[in-house]
Amino acid sequence: MTQTIKLAVIPGDGIGAEVVPEGLKVLAAALEGTGLEVRTTDFDLGAARWHRTGQTLTDSDLEAIKGHDAILLGAVGDPSVPSGVLERGLLLRLRFELDHYVNLRPSTYYPGVPTPLAAPGDIDFVVVREGTEGLYCGNGGAVRTGTPQEIATEVSVNTAFGVERVVRYAFDKARSRAAKHLTLVHKHNVLVHAGHLWRRTVEAVGAEYPEVTVDYCHIDAATIYMVTDPGRFDVIVTDNLFGDILTDEAGAVTGGIGLSASGNINPEGAFPSMFEPVHGSAPDIAGKALADPTATIGAVALLLEHIGQADAAARVSAAIDADMAARARASAAGSPLERSTSEVGDAIAAAVR
Ligand code: GGG
């Protein structure tokens, strides 16, 4: 009997509309012959909708999205919309309302891919970024706006409950990997209140995971190691802001943010989890078929893994590996592959079948 996966699709803004169809193409290829089929529902959310209606994400959109097994998101943000309207009203609202407290961001270096690193070595780590708290939760405000006396605050929220659950997820992830190593990234020498809560939580939860080794990096040191010695990392656990910045840097050092995938996960399955490329809407290249869909296709691999289709996920990951190797061979031969967004999707979909 055919089993149906109900997938909410939010292409969003800019290159989101170009990369999401490639993700869906590869998803369909990966499910061929598995007895699973995908039923998609498109959600017209983003800048165009906001201009038409003034709405970002309504309660009824949210209820409809909750009726799905998972979400595939492209990108959010457009220069024609005031900064923050879409990012907070759509992307962050989805993460908060659907309790995506784990933002999982793997980083792998594919040999031969151009990188700013002198000696990239073996890079294969995963960042577990807290997704519902920290500086991103909107706790703040402004008074005397526009005057020389303006006061603006953004208060970082770190709850014992929120920190413990994401730290526990990170330890579980570390335990499942070969290196079994966890690095806490924070800034507890300065951010003493939140930092000590994170540190104490890692110590306490870590006592239940004797097989996992643990170390600590201040965020500033972590950004340096990301350039000088990224191979030292296995699993990183960190807060919302530090994780956002560190994973963009990780994308840059491993060959570009066009390769970096992300899963916004509600591990308990109370709400659908959401899979997206780490990159944003890239308005400068939108509509030119220049966007690399690999990050979105990597997000599809994370989605498949999340819904229990480990075999299909592994085939998508292997097809990405093969495509990256083909790129490296072509570059080494002096004729780098020049392909449109859909040509990259076609090549990876063909390799998946
Ligand atoms: N594909 C996701 C996207 O559009 N990201 C843009 C963005 O504003 N990201 C901030 C974040 O991930 O917290």
From TrEMBL:
Keywords in alphabetical order: Amino-acid biosynthesis, Branched-chain amino acid biosynthesis, Cytoplasm, Leucine biosynthesis, Magnesium, Manganese, Metal-binding, NAD, Oxidoreductase
UniProt KW Cell cycle keyword: no
GO cellular component: cytoplasm
Annotated positions binding Mg(2+): 220, 244, 248
Necessary cofactors: Mg(2+); Mn(2+)
PROSITE patterns found in the cross-reference section: IDH_IMDH
Catalytic activity: (2R,3S)-3-isopropylmalate + NAD(+) = 4-methyl-2-oxopentanoate + CO2 + NADH
GO MF, any single term: NAD binding
Membrane-crossing segments per the record: none
Class of enzymatic activity (EC top level): oxidoreductase
Cofactor note: Binds 1 Mg(2+) or Mn(2+) ion per subunit.
Coiled coil: none
Gene Ontology biological process terms in this record: L-leucine biosynthetic process
Subcellular location as annotated: Cytoplasm
Cross-referenced SMART domains: Iso_dh (SM01329)
E.C. number: 1.1.1.85
Keyword Methyltransferase: no
Domain Isopropylmalate dehydrogenase-like: 6-348
Pathway the protein acts in: Amino-acid biosynthesis; L-leucine biosynthesis; L-leucine from 3-methyl-2-oxobutanoate: step 3/4
Site (Important for catalysis): 136, 187
Subunit description: Homodimer.
Family: Belongs to the isocitrate and isopropylmalate dehydrogenases family. LeuB type 2 subfamily.
Function: Catalyzes the oxidation of 3-carboxy-2-hydroxy-4-methylpentanoate (3-isopropylmalate) to 3-carboxy-4-methyl-2-oxopentanoate. The product decarboxylates to 4-methyl-2 oxopentanoate.
Protein name according to UniProt: 3-isopropylmalate dehydrogenase
Organism: Actinomyces howellii
